[in-house]
């Protein structure tokens, strides 16, 4: 059956002030102002670049028809289409403008400062959108971080349907873009015999697993590999190595491994993924990345509470998961000669009661391996009393790195 030819409903002359936002292998996205009478709205216009061949025109029409059928809170809404935008040969898509951009940019901008509740909300939105697609007999086929838009209140919206497959017609809408290799299921690649198949529902599940990898670790899957190397790894049934830093605990890693199984039928359904994050998964607080607290510290005083030749302590506030906690930031700084014991005098201010005015700390920083022992020596040298010292040594829990400094956070237990 030939696709219906919907008439463009937005005049190109009503789209003003175009600014190129992103550019892909087959399309460009512009930020524009849509004028309608006295009102104006920011929109995104997707300009497709396929050439003038009629077969590509059919793909565009199929995508438009598919978009018109989709209606879900986590699927980006198609406002309409327009012709001859920026001299384009095909109809261009018009969507609401998302000021926070896509998930890839969102993670790159916020780094490890994204709070756990926000991560969970994002992945639930993604799973909810994919669940809707699969129940509608639609395979997304190109699910990656760049095809998840971030809207107001950090809500996630699926986009990028140029590779989608309508299972009712078994027609693939487009061809893969180079950036999606890190998120694509192994069965989607052309094998050595040149055979290729349409993406299947289980292919989306593999992609969700890769998105989970990106959201919770802050790193792209295969971040240190080139596209050609990734395909070779997938052909040998290898998946990305588990990222360090504690952003992904054992329970979550096992679930990601299930999603990325090389046997498609062993992967969970989108409904099961949504169920996992709504009711089953409780993030472990034991595994916290050594680098993920740097941007969460605030109210750091310019002058330390305790200072010494090796280190200083400042009382500050740690904001994580929407809560503020008073902590002591213990900062070890490598100063002086690295190969000799370096004595230092730790000055203690009058704020803690029953504390000495100074305490001598000695230690050696001859090798990075000795750093842990050196930190314990410094901490013990600044202790107000034995109980405070035990609390510091026992409750060491978080690390932050900044330049040549290493920060250790302790609960703010001052007597």
Automatic annotation (TrEMBL):
Coiled-coil features, chain-numbered ranges: none
- Annotated ranges, domain Protein kinase: 15-282
- Tell me which CDD domains the record gives: PKc
Which UniProt keywords are listed?
Answer: Kinase, Transferase
PROSITE patterns to which the protein is assigned, alphabetical: PROTEIN_KINASE_DOM
One annotated GO molecular function is: ATP binding
Listed Pfam families:
PK_Tyr_Ser-Thr
InterPro entries hit by this protein: Kinase-like_dom_sf, Prot_kinase_dom, Ser-Thr/Tyr_kinase_cat_dom, Ser/Thr_Kinases-Pseudokinases
Record's protein name: Kinase-like domain-containing protein
Instruction: Tell me which species this is from.
Output: Suillus subaureus
């Amino acid at each position: 059956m030939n696709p219906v030819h919907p008439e463009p409903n937005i005049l190109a002359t009503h789209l003003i002030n175009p600014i190129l936002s992103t550019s892909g292998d087959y399309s460009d996205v512009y930020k524009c102002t849509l004028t309608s009478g006295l009102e104006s709205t920011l929109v995104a216009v997707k300009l497709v670049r396929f050439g003038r061949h009629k077969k590509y025109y059919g793909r565009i029409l199929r995508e438009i028809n598919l978009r018109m059928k989709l209606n879900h809170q986590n699927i980006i809404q198609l406002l309409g289409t327009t012709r001859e935008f920026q001299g384009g040969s095909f109809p261009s898509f018009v969507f609401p403008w998302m000021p926070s951009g896509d998930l890839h940019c969102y993670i790159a901008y916020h780094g490890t400062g994204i709070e756990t509740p926000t991560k969970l909300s994002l992945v639930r939105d993604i799973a909810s959108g994919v669940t809707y697609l699969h129940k509608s007999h639609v395979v997304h086929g190109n699910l990656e971080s760049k095809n998840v838009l971030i809207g107001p209140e950090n809500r996630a919206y699926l986009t990028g349907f140029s590779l989608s497959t309508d299972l009712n017609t078994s027609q693939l809408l487009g061809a893969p873009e180079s950036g999606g290799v890190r998120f694509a299921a192994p069965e989607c690649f052309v094998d050595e015999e040149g055979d290729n198949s349409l993406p299947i529902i289980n292919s989306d599940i593999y992609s969700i697993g890769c998105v989970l990898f990106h959201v919770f670790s802050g790193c792209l899957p295969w971040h240190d590999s080139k596209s050609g190397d990734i395909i070779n790894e997938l052909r040998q049934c290898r998946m990305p190595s588990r990222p360090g830093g504690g952003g992904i605990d054992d329970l979550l890693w096992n679930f990601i491994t299930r999603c990325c199984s090389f046997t498609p039928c062993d992967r969970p359904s989108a409904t099961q993924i949504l169920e996992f994050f709504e009711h089953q998964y409780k993030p472990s607080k034991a595994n916290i990345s050594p680098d993920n607290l740097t941007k969460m510290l605030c109210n750091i005083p310019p002058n330390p509470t305790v200072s010494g030749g090796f280190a200083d302590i400042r009382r500050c506030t740690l904001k994580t998961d929407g809560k503020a906690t008073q902590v002591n930031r213990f900062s070890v700084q490598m100063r002086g000669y690295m190969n000799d014991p370096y004595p230092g005098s730790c000055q203690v201010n009058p704020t803690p009661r029953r504390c000495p005015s100074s305490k001598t700390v000695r230690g050696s920083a001859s090798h990075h391996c000795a750093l842990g022992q050196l930190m314990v020596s410094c901490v013990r040298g600044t202790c107000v009393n034995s109980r405070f010292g035990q609390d510091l040594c026992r409750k060491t829990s978080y690390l932050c790195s900044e330049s040549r400094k290493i920060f250790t956070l302790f609960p703010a237990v001052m007597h």
